[in-house]
Amino acid sequence: MSGKIYTVGDSVRCTGTLKTSTGVKEDTTGTVTFKVKSPAGVVTTYVYGTDAELVRSAEGVYYVEVDAAAWGVWNYGFSSTGSAQAAQESWFEARRGEVFA
């Protein structure tokens, strides 16, 4: 799990990739879910095909643009069911810019 540092107010593209056991990118026959947990502990969930925020950009590749509206550590993850079962987690930190601190 690795993360990056952004400035509060940035739009952060969170990307997840579904792969087979041999490492080939693959769309699943099941459900793709994205969850993000804000620094305040609020969890927001998006489901592909239901929520427009969760976008498929290529075979097996999905993303959500998260508004880093608060400072602190944001945790997020993708999971899928069906033929390409996978789970992937990461994080990013939003900091106040020096100008606005």
How many H/I helical runs? 0
Structural class: mainly beta
Measured distance between first and last alpha carbons: 28 Å
Total individual domains: 1
Number of strands: 8
CATH homologous superfamily, by name? Answer: Immunoglobulins
Order of strands in the sheet with most strands: 1-8-7-3-4
The CATH architecture: Sandwich
Write the CATH fold name: Immunoglobulin-like
Share of residues in helices: under 10%
Low-confidence sequence ranges: none
Percent strand equals over 45%
Q: What radius of gyration results from the CA coordinates?
A: 14 Å
Using the coordinates above, name the CATH class: Mainly Beta
What string gives the helices and strands in order? EEEEEEEE
Average pLDDT metric: 90
Keywords, separated by commas or semicolons:
five-stranded mixed sheet, 101 residues, Immunoglobulin-like, mainly beta
Notes on the protein architecture:
By secondary structure, the protein is an all-beta fold. The chain has a single domain (3-95), classed as Immunoglobulin-like. Helices cover 0% and strands 52% of the residues. It contains no helices and eight strands. The protein has strands at 3-7, 11-17, 32-37, 43-47, 55-58, 61-67, 72-80, 86-95. The strands form two sheets. It has a five-stranded mixed beta sheet with strand order 1-8-7-3-4, with no helix packed on it. The chain has a three-stranded antiparallel beta sheet with strand order 2-6-5, with no helix packed on it. Strand 5 (55-58) and strand 6 form a beta hairpin. It is elongated. The protein starts with a strand and ends in a 6-residue tail after the last strand. The mean pLDDT is 90.
